[in-house]
UniProtKB/TrEMBL annotation:
Coiled coil: none annotated. One of its GO terms (biological process) is DNA biosynthetic process. Residues 105-206 form the Endonuclease/exonuclease/phosphatase domain. SUPFAM superfamilies: DNA/RNA polymerases, DNase I-like. It comes from Trichogramma kaykai. PANTHER family: REVERSE TRANSCRIPTASES. Pfam families: Exo_endo_phos_2. This is Endonuclease/exonuclease/phosphatase domain-containing protein.
């Protein structure tokens, strides 16, 4: 690249695909050197000091990588530029000019090159406090020239677009927060922009999106598995579409396929797609007063920025300082109040919210299912027996032994046992939507289930399962027997299964059913009942009765 980094960005529509998952083996190396983020005229208490400022560390504590991204950060070392002036912030050391080279900055560049060399794709982001015309500065200074030469060996491209300043301080504005991506990642990073969101810092927030390849998502449903968000279900339109469907007569397999395909299309029309990422619960101390103070603070900050160099600059700065002080005081007071309420609740209810809050922090990290194809195949072959061919055929159904109709109350009893929050099977249909479909087209479900019972057929569509292998605590990862299989079946098949079980139990529990001495796999009977029967018989024999 000849020591130059191109800043041309092709226009592309990039899909937002962020995740919060546990750390995994990295396939995308991300170096985020957040050195100057809090080196402003007000220093955040969130900055973590590093004994070795050139050593990359996870930053900040508690963050999770995006999918399979390894996130590294440097928490100290490069200071922010303030219009070429040297000003010492409260609690921070003296800042260097953006054009001044130092051994510390050279060490930082060497660490970046050593860490990222030979790895792809790579993303590098930092407040480098360096000027160069390639990213919109008025001139190129020694630090910018050194940065260009160092990163040129990594074959990376500049993601910054436009000339909007990323740093806005008392003494001026500059573009010193830079983002670089390797050639292989360049076209998958888009929507790079400088945001006006409030950051409590002189550095503006930088937002961009990374399009991950379909096979890189951690825990994502395999291709072909649909997923919808049950919270977005439009009950009226769903019921209207489903109630108008007509299931043509045919074999049980064909009728089931037509029924479920119609429900899938209805879900597409009445629900939005679900997301793998989990929603973060709002903090308990947030309230309307804090939200109002934050809006005032953002408004005052923008007024302060626009007033730079104008006669009312000092007034606007004081207004911003007052608004920021009110916001901090409101947050501090609300946190203190919530803490006192939490302590009082702990005195009243030992196992209530305080206990759950503490235990949620003490839980072990969520384990991820194995993804190595060889290990998955060995685990499946170990945990599941081989399927043998059917040895006994199903006798034909005679006219005098016709299967009775599926009754209205029988079907209602079966589908009402479906739990709303249970995970769906491979079809991805939420249980809420399935129960709404049964209520909207009751007769269609009765016809399909009756056809299955008449033909003695349990449809192949409902035999497919979504398999999740969960690692047992303390077991070796490479052993197939160390995993506990969880098999999720389609809920519609479970409804048919409950109808069948209900009819079987009505027979087995009747006069011509199972013997009274049969205790296994029966309701309201257990091993304890069997032991008590044996003991009672033995005591009767001993006593001679």
């Amino acid at each position: 690249m000849g020591g130059e980094i191109s800043s041309n960005r092709p226009s592309a529509q990039i899909e937002k695909n962020y995740r919060k998952d546990g750390a995994r083996k990295p396939e995308l190396l991300v170096l985020i050197f957040a050195n100057g983020l809090h080196h402003s005229r007000r220093k955040s208490a969130n900055t973590r000091k590093s004994t070795d400022p050139s050593a990359p560390r996870l930053y900040p504590k508690g963050w999770s990588p995006i999918s399979k991204l390894l996130v590294l950060a440097l928490t100290d070392g490069v200071s922010a530029h303030h219009g070429g002036s040297q000003k010492k912030a409260r609690g921070a050391r003296k800042r260097r000019r953006s054009g001044t080279l130092s051994g510390e900055f050279i060490g930082l560049l060497n660490n970046i090159v050593d860490e990222a060399r030979g790895k792809t794709p790579v993303l590098v982001a930092s407040d480098f406090n360096a000027w160069a015309t390639e990213w919109g500065s008025r001139e190129t200074k020694p630090r910018g020239r050194a940065l260009l030469n160092a990163l040129a060996t990594l074959d990376v491209l500049l993601l910054n677009t436009g000339s909007e300043p990323t740093f806005v301080g008392e003494q001026g504005e500059s573009v010193i927060d830079l983002t670089f991506a390797s050639v292989s990642l360049y076209n998958r990073v888009g929507s790079w922009r400088v945001s006006d969101v409030y950051t409590s810092s002189d550095h503006k927030a930088i937002v961009y999106e990374i399009l991950l390849e379909k096979n890189q998502g951690v825990g994502r449903a395999p291709a072909g598995n649909r997923r919808w968000s049950a919270r977005t279900l439009d009950g009226d339109s769903f019921a209207e579409i489903v109630s108008s469907m007509k299931i043509r007569s045919g074999s049980a397999e064909n009728m089931v396929d037509e029924l479920m395909s119609t429900i899938v299309r209805t879900c597409d029309a009445s629900m939005s797609g679900g997301h793998d990422r989990r929603r973060r619960e709002p903090v308990c101390w947030w309230n309307d007063d804090i939200a109002e103070c934050r809006r005032d603070c953002i408004r005052a900050q923008r007024g302060d920025q626009r007033a730079r160099g104008r006669p009312d600059e000092v007034i606007r700065r004081e207004e911003f300082a007052d608004a920021r002080r009110r916001l901090r005081n409101a947050i501090k007071a609300s946190k203190h109040l919530c803490w006192r309420q939490l302590c009082d609740e702990a005195d009243r209810d030992v196992w209530g919210k305080p206990y759950r809050t503490v235990m949620s922090r003490l839980k072990a990290p969520r384990t991820s299912p194995p993804t190595a194809p060889d290990l998955v195949r060995r685990a499946v072959s170990t945990l599941f027996p081989s399927v043998i061919p059917r040895l006994i055929g199903i006798p034909p159904v005679l006219e005098e032994h016709l299967i009775p109709e599926v009754g209205v109350e029988e079907l209602r009893w079966a589908y009402r046992r479906v739990r709303i929050g249970a995970a769906p099977g491979p079809d991805g249909i939420p249980n809420t939507a399935l129960k709404a479909a049964v209520e909207a087209c009751f007769d269609s479900f009765r016809r399909v289930f009756k056809k299955c019972l008449r033909e003695g057929c349990f449809p192949a569509r409902w035999k497919r399962q979504r398999l999740v292998l969960m690692l047992k605590p303390g077991k070796p990862v490479a052993e197939p027997s160390s995993y506990r299989p969880l098999c999720m079946l389609d809920t519609a098949g479970k409804v048919l299964e409950r109808i069948m079980v209900g009819r079987l139990e009505a027979h087995t529990e009747g006069p011509a059913g199972l013997a009274d001495s049969q205790f296994g796999f029966r309701k309201r009977r257990s091993t304890v009942d069997a032991i008590q029967t044996v003991l009672s018989t033995a005591l009767s024999a001993i006593s001679g009765k």
